[in-house]
Amino acid sequence: MSISVLITDDHPVVRAGIRALLTNEPDMDVVGEASDGAEGVAMQQEFDPDVVLMDLRMPGMGGIAAIREIRAAHPDRRIVVLTTYDGDADIHRALDAGACGYLLKDTLGREVVNAVRNAAGGRKVIPSPVAGRLAEYTPRVDLTPRELEVLAYAAKGLRNKDIARVIGRTEETVKVHLKHIMSKLDAADRTEAVTIALQRGIIHIDD
Amino acid sequence: MSISVLITDDHPVVRAGIRALLTNEPDMDVVGEASDGAEGVAMQQEFDPDVVLMDLRMPGMGGIAAIREIRAAHPDRRIVVLTTYDGDADIHRALDAGACGYLLKDTLGREVVNAVRNAAGGRKVIPSPVAGRLAEYTPRVDLTPRELEVLAYAAKGLRNKDIARVIGRTEETVKVHLKHIMSKLDAADRTEAVTIALQRGIIHIDD
DNA sequence: CTCGCAATACCTCATTGGAGGTAGCACGAC
DNA sequence: GTCGTGCTACCTCCAATGAGGTATTGCGAG
User: Fold this and answer.
1) Number of Cβ pairs closer than 8 Å across A and B?
2) How many whole angstroms separate alpha carbon A181 and alpha carbon A144?
3) Range of the structural domain that residue B60 is part of
C-alpha cells in the first residue's frame, strides 16, 4: 500500500518540486497541496494522509500553529517540516508542536524521499545538520511572552520609555525585561539581542 | 527552436520544481542545474543558455556577483532572478547587476513559465508585486561601504567605541556614520536601523 | 503548603548613545 | 577649476541605556 502525502507550502515552485520528487516513487502518492496552514489543516482532515510535509512561516496560519491543530485532532498523524529556516527556536517549536521530522530545503531530493518513508514508518527524521543545531552550544532559550513582546518593540526602534507606554508598564519594568532578555540571549546590548533573536527564529521581522 | 534554460539555485527541491514546471512546456529545455553562483557562471559558459534562472544568497558566490560576471562576459545573456527575498535593496542590486527579471518564489508556476518566455523574447519581467517595491515610498537608499561596515558591526552588538577600534577610527567618526545611517534609513535608533536594513536586504545576518 | 518564577516596581550609578554644529581632505564629475 | 560627496575628526549637551541591587504580588508545580 502506498504512502499518501499532503504538501503544505506557500511557494508553488516548491510544491511542484516536492510533487515531482515524490511522484517518481512508486510507493508514494501526493494526495493534495495546501498553500497555508489553515488549508493544510482542512485538507489533512479531508484526505487523511499518512504524512504531511509542512513549511513554516506561511501567510495566514503558520506551520507551527497548523501542526498543533493537526496533532490535537490526530495525535498519530506524521508531520515532517520542510523549510529554509534553521533557527534553533523554529526547530524546537516545531518538534514541541508535534512534528516528527525537520528538513531544510537544501536537503537532497533523495533524502526528502527517505524522510517521508521513515516518517511513515514511525521513525523520527532529524538529519545531522539539524540535529547539530539542537545539541549545539545554544542551550534552549525560552523567552517569556512579555519578554518577546518587549523585544519585538525594541526591534522596531522604540525606546524603553515608549515600550513602557504601549504595554502600560513603567520604564523600569521594561528595563528589567530587557536585562533578562540580553542575559538569556547572551547579547551585549539590545541591538545584538534583536539580531540574535532574528537569527535564531525567536522573533520575526514582520511582527 | 526551443528556449534553453539554466537553473541556478542551492535548493534541490526548488530546482526540481522549476525543472518540473519547465519540462512540461514543449518550447523549453532545461540544459543544466547549478547549485551556486560559481557553478552557474561556469555552466552558462558551457551550455550557452537563452535564459538563466538565478537565485540570490547561495553559499559561496551569491547570485548578484554571478549576474555581474555573466553580464560582463555575455552582455546579451538573459538572466531572471527567482528568489524568496523581496527586500528592495536586493531587487535594485539584481537589476543594476544586469538581471532582466525578478520573480518571487510565491509566483505561480504558469507565471514562471511566462517570465522565461518573455525574458527569452527580450522583454523585462517585473511582476507588479515586485514593481510595487521598486516604486514604493522607499526611496532608493544607498549606504556607503563604510556605513555598511559600521552597520554590520552595530548589528553584532559592538558599541561605538569597539567599532571604532576594529575599523581603526575614532568613536566620533563612528557616531557620524551611524547618524547618517539612521537618517538614510529613517530609523529612530541603531536597533531599528539594523532591523530595517535586514528587512530591506541591505545587510544580512550571516555577515 | 512551599518553592520557584514571571512580572511588577523602585533605587543608584557610570557609561553609552544620539542631536547639533563645524571643518579639513581627497577624489571624481562636470 | 569648482562642486559635490565620502570620510575623517572635533566640540558640547542631555537623554537613554545597562549594571547592580532589593522587594512585592500572584500563580502553578511539586
Assistant:
1) 116
2) 9
3) 3-135
